[in-house]
Amino acid sequence: MVKRVLLVLIRGYQKYLSPLFPPSCIYEPSCSQYALEAIGKYGALRGSWLAFKRILRCNPFHKGGYDPVP
Questions:
Q1: Where are the transmembrane segments (predicted)?
Q2: Can you tell me the distance from the alpha carbon of 56 to that of 3, in angstroms, rounded to the nearest whole number?
Q3: Around Cβ 4, how many Cβ atoms within 10 Å?
Q4: Nearest residue to 70 via CA among 50, 55, 49
Q5: Contacts of 8-16 spanning 24+ positions with Cβ under 8 A
Q6: pLDDT per residue as tens, the chain (70 positions)
Q7: What phi and psi values does residue 62 have, to the nearest 5 degrees?
Q8: What is the C-alpha to C-alpha distance for residues 31 and 41, in angstroms, rounded to an integer?
Q9: Which of 18, 30, 20 shows the shortest CA–CA distance to 55?
Q10: Which of 1, 46, 48, 60 has its CA 20 to 30 A from that of 31?
């Protein structure tokens, strides 16, 4: 149930909010796509934790590049 709600919220962000801003994620896949994949694969708790850590790394002080869900 929580997993489904999180996935809907992230998809809503991708569809309605993300297009309003210029792309700024330094990683591939994007942080929101990473969150979708992590929550889909590991569930709400662990997937959210992985997404949270990824979002913290998404800044100019990190190299970026290809960073798939483990």
A1: none
A2: 21
A3: 10
A4: 50
A5: 10/35, 10/36, 10/39, 11/36
A6: 999 999 999 999 999 999 999 988 999 999 999 999 999 999 999 999 999 999 999 999 999 999 999 9
A7: -110, 155
A8: 15
A9: 30
A10: 1
Helix axes 31-42 and 2-12, enclosed angle (nearest 10): 160
The reported pTM is 0.92
Per-domain boundaries in the chain: 2-66
> Tokens in use for 53?
């850590």
The answer to whether 46 touches 59, Cβ cutoff 8 Å, is: no
* Contact (Cβ atoms closer than 8 angstroms) between residue 54 and residue 27: yes
